[in-house]
Amino acid sequence: GKIVSVGSTQFVDFASNIGVIATDERYRNVGFATSITSALVREILKKSPAATIHVLADNAPAVRAYSKVGFKPYKTYLSLRGDIIRS
């Protein structure tokens, strides 16, 4: 077999965060991300009272996978990409 999808998490006492969920493009849309996210959440909830995940709002496949597991939008963050402008 070969690895086609991976996930990671950072465990913290109060709310552990799912860090990365990635699937090889050739194997997307078959449920791997949802399965990995679900497994990570089960492990997180054994050790922490809450699980969090950060995702870009325009990443529809990721939002869909995380929603299937039960994640809901909670907060909106602003981010800056590119060069920092200094005055």
Explain what this protein looks like in three dimensions.
- The mean pLDDT is 91.
- The radius of gyration is 15 Å and the shape is globular.
- Strand 1 and strand 2 form a beta hairpin.
- The chain contains two helices and three strands, in the order E-E-H-E-H.
- Helices cover 30% and strands 20% of the residues.
- It has helices at 32-47, 60-69; strands spanning 5-10, 16-23, 51-53.
- It has one domain (5-69): Gcn5-related N-acetyltransferase (GNAT) (Aminopeptidase), CATH 3.40.630.30.
- It has a three-stranded mixed beta sheet, with helices on one face.
- The protein is of the alpha+beta class and 87 residues long.
- Helix 1 crosses helix 2.
